[in-house]
Automatic annotation (TrEMBL):
Highest taxon of the lineage: Bacteria
GO CC entries: plasma membrane
Biased composition (Low complexity): 451-460
Major localization class: membrane
Record's protein name: MFS transporter
Keywords: Cell membrane, Membrane, Transmembrane, Transmembrane helix, Transport
Domain called Major facilitator superfamily (MFS) profile: residue spans: 34-419
Record-linked SUPFAM superfamilies: MFS general substrate transporter
Transmembrane intervals: 58-88, 192-212, 243-264, 276-298, 305-322, 328-347, 368-387, 393-416
């Protein structure tokens, strides 16, 4: 149960949590039975979801012959998160998460089964696909923040970073398997069977939820039903830089840096002339890099702000490098580290935001996180698509990298300022003593009760962390973030 405001009010880990936090292994959270059931169910369901995505797009294109219709289907599926995402977070905070997930996972399975019946019976029309895509998007509005925050109830704060990393590895592994299985099914027996298998795949997570031992869950106090909870969540994030700036960075990179379908198709077709096989290889390499990045993140015990900002900056630099790659094979090779850095950034930001949130607010915080990350696609996609079509694939990809790098640098400076730090460039110390050329030191600001030139009081804490008016650490300096 929650004991008070702040990140430290999350349920205290049990002895096994403490032990695995000190000696973390790549798969340590899988030792927890409830999370193990959840992860196995999600692996099956994620594979089915990727199968349906491929089959759905192919079915729409078969029915209409229009790429615009395919784009409309994708927009209908993601538009609800942009419009109603915050309301899903309010429901996640109010309701028992396990019961809510049983409802949402069952409803998602039904959308697949309905589409399977319509397709296999030969009665499917394009508006049926539009309707099921929109219904799936509406269910996801509630399912996504609930599923994200339920992870902390299964594993506790001591294993949250590891579990979030394994969830990402789980999803990316399914990304490698699902489309391949869907391709075989579509060519051999038709799209309807892919929809049927996706609908049935939800039996796995539903079964896992039913088999969980509820006494072992780290349940948190539910938010009571009250007016103004949506605005309360926004005010909560706005007043906490350790939440606000990571969410802003996630929104910026999600909007402008993750438009790979646009860039990879343009490079494959217009720059290197490699065809569908070359495009598939690029996606496989990026997915493999994403899996590796998630597994590497699973070994880390902390989610530092410095790592989040550094991964985002390196992600942008790698994109810029790939945009200038002279050969296809060099371009393809760069997809691996791009996948690693993209997932490292995403996992670090996700787990860091969850751990810094009050458990009673976590659903609303994560709904905002997902809204800016997923909801930015309908905005950034057309912009980056226009730049790519107008100025070429290299300029389009390069502009995405520049915007990602610039966003990382600006957010890094904002986080350092919020922690009472300033950047210091010391070339002589770097040459003589081998220290980093760029470091962050305490800002010297005169405040009431201190002499001019005295160090800022937030830097005077023994642990180097800034404290808010409740006395709890609000934001670690860049060296500890």
């Amino acid at each position: 149960m929650s004991s008070g405001p702040g990140a430290e009010s999350a349920p205290a880990p049990n002895h096994s949590d403490n032990r695995t936090t000190r000696h973390n292994s790549m798969f340590s959270s899988l030792r927890i039975r409830n999370y193990r059931l959840f992860a196995m169910g999600q692996m099956v369901s994620n594979t089915g979801t990727w199968m349906q995505r491929i089959a759905q797009d192919w079915l729409v294109f078969t029915l209409t012959g229009s790429a615009t219709a395919v784009g409309l289907t994708v927009a209908l599926q993601f538009l609800p998160m942009l419009l109603f995402g915050l309301y899903g977070g309010v429901l996640a905070d109010r309701c028992a998460k396990r019961r809510l997930l049983l409802l949402t996972q069952s409803a998602m399975g039904m959308t697949g089964l309905v589409l399977a019946v319509l397709t296999l019976s030969g009665h499917v029309q394009v508006w049926h696909v539009y309707a099921t895509a929109f219904a799936l998007g509406m269910i996801t509005v509630v399912d996504n923040p609930t599923r994200q925050t339920f992870v902390s109830e299964m594993v506790g704060p001591g294993q949250l970073r590891n579990a979030v990393s394994l969830n990402s590895a789980n999803f990316q592994s399914a990304r490698l398997i699902g489309p391949a299985v869907a391709g075989v099914l579509i060519t051999s027996v038709g799209s309807g069977w892919a929809f049927l298998l996706n609908g049935l795949s939800f039996l796995a997570p539903i079964g896992g939820l039913l088999l969980m031992r509820t006494a072992e869950l780290h349940t948190t106090e539910r938010a009571p039903r009250a007016k103004g909870q949506l605005r309360e969540g926004l005010r909560y994030v706005r007043g906490r830089p350790e939440l606000l700036w990571p969410i802003i960075l996630v929104g910026a990179i999600g909007t402008f840096g993750f438009n790979f379908p646009i860039w990879l198709t343009a490079f494959t077709d217009h720059v290197f002339d490699r065809g569908a096989g070359g495009y598939s290889l690029l996606n496989v390499l990026m997915a493999a890099g994403s899996v590796a990045g998630a597994l590497l993140a699973a070994r880390r015990n902390t989610s530092r702000m410095r790592l989040m900002v550094g991964a985002a900056a390196l992600f942008g630099v790698l994109q810029m490098t790939a945009a200038l790659a002279p050969t296809y094979w060099l371009f393809a090779a760069l997809m691996l580290p791009i996948g690693v850095m993209g997932l490292t950034f995403n996992v670090t930001a996700n787990s860091g935001v969850q751990l810094a949130s009050d458990p009673a607010m976590r659903g609303r915080v994560m709904s905002l996180y997902m809204m800016v990350f997923v909801g930015g696609t309908p905005i950034g996609g057309p912009i980056m698509g226009w730049v790519t079509d107008t100025y070429g694939a290299r300029i389009g990809f390069l502009s995405g990298g520049v915007l990602s790098l610039a966003s990382a640098l600006l957010v890094g400076l904002a986080l350092a300022r919020a922690a009472g730090l300033r950047p210091r460039l010391d070339v002589r110390a770097a040459r003589r003593e081998g220290r980093p050329m760029l470091s962050f030191v305490a800002r010297e600001l005169p405040v009431a009760g201190t002499a001019p030139g005295a160090a800022h009081p937030t830097a005077a804490r023994g642990d180097g962390a800034q404290a808010d008016d409740t006395g709890r650490p609000a934001l670690a300096p860049a060296g500890r973030a």
